[in-house]
Amino acid sequence: YAPAHSRFLWCSVGRVIEMDNLTKIFGEKLIAVNNVNFEVEEGAIFGFLGPNGAGKTTTIRLLLGLIRPTAGEVRVFGEKMTPGSSNLRRRIGYLPTNPRFPPTMTPIRYLDFVGKLFRIGREERMKRLATLIRSVGLLGDSSREIAGFSTGMVTRLGFAAALMNDPDLLILDEPTSGLDPAGRKSTLDLIAELGKEKTIFVSSHILSDIDRVCTDVGVIGEGKGIFSGSIKDMKKIIRSRVIRLELEGDLAKFCAALKAAQWVAGFETRGDFEVDVTFASTISMVDAVREVTNLVSRLGLDLISVSSSTSSVEDAFMALLRDEESR
Asked: How far is 56 from 173, CA to CA, in rounded Å?
């Protein structure tokens, strides 16, 4: 539990995490992290985005001081992080990918054990674990053995364990991995709620998860940092000029009209009802959407739905990674 003087230091620093030319090479063969420079401001929910194998988990291990960098350094709360920086790790909560806990323990016993590791007094320990068990929705299962828990329940227990020391910084490594849609939603909701009080560093390869909860984002590909900035700036880079229309009526007539329209760069039909329309760069998205909906109306088609094409956004993100790789 961070004492008052250390919390004052955090507030005075401004940047909670600073990575300067961070590099990690394993066995003089594998460059897992290659000259990465990222900064995380106090109060941010920072999304660490990249495909599987990009170096996200290795970066987190460096960030926690679990391994030493080959070159460069990591500073947390303004201090250099090393394997001996136990004073810094006391102020960090960590949730690994697919966490595992002693199967015969109950949530109460496990959180009590975690509290003892942080040398939290019994009265405060009991108060915290009771509050956390309730807040992560495990009150009804607090006396059950962990062995019978679902993936979502284990993740929620992991959140509670990561929060037992009331950390200033919360580090989450692929927190939605293996969760069903309901579990994924509740996890993202919890991250958004925690972000009102804490600085959060959340790693993921799922663009939509980062988009939903994060204020800032860093992108890594093949160990190299290729973007760092706000979510808004990220969206400007990978912004898609494609919308998906679900229509009822004469789709062939609609496609013929699209082919003749100067504001259309291309289109692709998906079955008998859907069409993805790519707009030309010479027209704003607002005007383009107005033009296409007016066209639907003039041709007498029924518009069932209109949405941005998620797949095209993810394709644009992958194009950003490929562009960096080619350079």
From this structure: 8
Closest CA to 115 of 102, 130, 125, 107: 125
* Cβ 264 vs Cβ 234: under 8 Å: no
- Six-digit token string for 285: 């998205």
Helix (H, G, I), strand (E, B) or coil at 263: coil
CA distance 233 to 229: 6
Stretch 1-27: mean pLDDT, rounded? 68
pLDDT digits (tens, 9 = 90+) for 39-52: 999 999 999 998 88
For residue 90, how far is the Cα from the chain centroid?
Answer: 23
pLDDT band at residue 20 using 50, 70 and 90 as cut-offs:
very high
Cα dihedral 258, 259, 262, 267 sign: positive
Mean pLDDT value across the chain: 88
CA distance 62 to 17: 12
Distances (CA, A) of 174 to 47, 110, 203, 234, 316: 10, 22, 5, 20, 22
Strand order in 264-270's β-sheet? Answer: 264-270, 274-279, 242-248, 302-308
In order, the DSSP letters of 278-293 are EEPTTS-HHHHHHHHH
The residue with greater pLDDT, 315 or 57, is 57
Model confidence, pTM: 0.78
Rounded distance between C-alpha atoms, residue 157 and residue 136, angstroms: 7
Side chain identity at 70, as an amino acid letter?
T
Give dist(CA 320, CA 140) in Å, integer.
45
Amino acid letter at 290? R
